[in-house]
Specification:
Shape: globular
Largest sheet: 3 strands, antiparallel
Helix content: under 10%
Order of helices and strands: EEEEE
Oligomer: single chain
Strand content: 25-35%
Radius of gyration: 14 Å
Number of helices: 0
Structural class: mainly beta
Length: 64
């Protein structure tokens, strides 16, 4: 199903359920990072990713 879409807020993390028939937005506390949670709407198990380190990501650009 792929990676769930995420946005981090002060009060937690908002994730979209990766189940194509559900696609509900879940509000997950930041303390759930690295753990597996279940979508309350459809029951799909979703892994909450760890926080990325500063500057980490695909192909970080360096200024010339």
């Amino acid at each position: 199903m792929g990676q769930p879409r995420m946005a981090e807020k002060d009060n937690g993390i908002r994730m979209m359920c990766p189940n194509l028939t559900c696609r509900k937005v879940l509000a997950v506390p930041t303390s759930a990072r690295g753990r597996t949670v279940r979508c309350k709407a459809c029951g799909t198990a979703i892994r909450v990713p760890q926080a990325k380190a500063e500057g980490e990501g695909p192909n970080p650009r360096k200024s010339a």
